[in-house]
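Hey,
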Amino acid sequence: MRVLLAHNNYTVQGGAEVFFHEVARVLVARGHEVALFSAAEDGLGAPHSDLFPEAADYRHGSIAARAVRLPAMIYNTRARDAFARMIETFRPDIVHAFAIYVRLTPAILDATRKAGRPGRALLPRAGQPLLSRLARGQRRQHDRGLYP
């Protein structure tokens, strides 16, 4: 199965990004083809990073400048269009998105829907079916000493 995973950040900044990459690793280990998608980051040489969209900068600038960028933090049309290109390029069987607020935004889900791909967005404390199957596999790997 071809799986497209989407997350705001590609570079590990904390546990959410570790989880993002671990889900990809477990799926690949189980024989699936996996592509990762995130917002653009300086100097990132990841596969498909040429398709990663710029995210609205909500941390810098005056309050007025940040206010102008607010709509893109709610619905990022650049992310939607970039994700549509990613779907067209990778042609996934399923899309799984988590931690997409503010940078990628739920706009990418519209690209998934328009492309007719089954998709799931992991919201806080939701989206358990796929992830609980993965967690069971990770637990077995932990028991075999593959990672701490």
